[in-house]
Design brief:
385 residues, alpha/beta, Aspartate Aminotransferase, domain 2, Aspartate Aminotransferase, domain 1, 7-stranded mixed beta sheet, 3-stranded antiparallel beta sheet, binds pyridoxal-5'-phosphate
């Protein structure tokens, strides 16, 4: 839950400040707006990048990041078979072809599978860090060798790092979400970050009907060079984002501390396998993943935790929204998948996901809750045998 747990006075003060202005303007490109710009500048500074552009959702952010990178009809975009469906939707909305590939042992894009999936039509690789880092050195090297754009949809991994570098800053462009389940929560919202001026400009244009935002020109005279949509962020949402951003270091630190305590309490269990990492120190506290024997054991585990008042997150209960193997409604529209049994295309990923448990680690956990959750995991593991 992260940022959503801490919404309060600071966010309200930012909104109040907006309303205290002589002429309130809640529209991002209206006269006198400033919260969206301030949020972008502060976010870019926290990430250590030159440019940030805030938009209406995380889905909009990856859509703009890809549009800004020049992805278009017929281009193939390699990504992971385990992700929330949004990046696949964004690739598809641009007329490009999503090419999901199998996971490695860290639950991320397997660099060997990426390399195998490259064709002359491949234009980009979208890495989707799930609260930790993919093997970014290997992915960056593959993209460099094949002249592909490396994109990071880091919606789930704000604040996570790889070898000391913040995720989202390693590829040419990164995107984040601020929905209710993310590190920062603004109601709805998202942002793209990059050091590449051209990608930034084009992504910002795409988010605003193609408006080029040329200085000194009235909006109605603003030219365009490509098509777009309205994916803008409102000033109110940006104000909430400013309040949330002031809490980010606390959120990241607390979740990490909580997760460490829980992991230390359960790491001795012989019948669960904690997921391995490309860089464990850089992983987020937000979510704990481990594997059990099989699907039946995972469902039993979930039921046991539910009985003790603890839910799971994504795995196993929301697999349908996070696995390419069940997305017939989207992938069957493409020739390469139309006559395929999707499930059989990513057997390793399917088996991993079906036997895994994902747990949300809240920021606001007292010692008693941490002890109860740890005890519930231990009891579920013992029951599983
Ligand atoms: C990897 C990834 N990308 C994009 C999104 C979409 O974000 P939003 O809900 O803000 O549209 C999500 C949401 O869970 C996600 O996990």
């Amino acid at each position: 839950m992260a940022g959503a747990e801490l919404i309060g006075r600071e966010e309200l003060a930012e909104i109040q400040e907006l309303f205290n202005k002589e002429k309130v303007n809640l529209y991002r490109y209206g006269g006198g707006n400033y919260k969206a710009r301030e949020f972008e500048e502060k976010f870019a500074a926290w990430m250590g990048v030159k440019y940030a552009h805030a938009v209406s959702s995380g889905t909009a952010a990856i859509h703009c990041a890809l549009a800004g990178s020049g992805i278009g009809p017929g281009d193939e975009v390699i990504t992971t078979a385990w992700t929330f469906i949004a990046p696949i939707e964004a690739i598809s909305a641009l007329g490009a072809v999503p090419v999901p590939v199998e996971l490695d042992e860290t639950y991320h894009l397997d660099p060997l599978e990426v390399e195998k999936a490259i064709t002359p039509k491949t234009k980009a690789v979208v890495a989707v860090p799930m609260w930790a880092s993919p093997k970014m050195d290997e992915l960056a090297e593959i993209c460099r060798r094949h002249n592909l754009t490396l994109v990071e949809d880091a919606a789930q991994a704000l604040g996570a790092t790889y070898k000391g570098r913040k995720l989202g800053t390693i590829g040419r462009v990164g995107s984040f979400s601020f929905d209710a389940g993310k590190t920062l929560h603004t109601g709805e919202g998202g942002i793209i970050i990059t050091n590449d001026r051209d990608i930034y400009d084009r992504a910002a244009e795409f988010s605003d009907h193609g408006h080029m935002h040329l200085e000194g020109l009235p909006r109605g005279k603003d030219p365009r060079r490509a098509k777009g949509l309205n994916l803008r962020l409102s000033e109110v949402t940006a104000a909430i984002g400013l309040g949330q951003l002031s809490k980010i270091d606390f959120i990241l630190r607390k979740a990490k501390e909580n997760k460490k305590q829980i992991k230390d309490a359960i790491r001795h269990l012989p019948n669960i396998t904690l997921r391995p990492f490309a860089d464990e120190d850089g992983s987020q506290g937000d979510t704990l993943i481990f594997r059990v024997r099989d699907r039946e054991a995972a469902l039993g585990f979930e039921a046991h935790l539910m009985g003790k008042g603890f839910g799971t997150k994504i795995l196993p209960e929301a697999l349908d929204w996070h696995f390419a193997g069940v997305w017939d409604h989207l992938l069957k529209a493409y020739d390469r998948y139309s006559d395929k049994d999707l499930e059989s295309l990513w057997p390793k990923t399917g088996a991993m996901l079906r036997s895994s448990i994902c747990l949300n680690i809240p920021v606001l956990m007292d010692d008693d809750t941490i002890a109860r959750l740890s005890a519930a995991i231990i009891a579920a593991a013992e029951e599983m045998g």
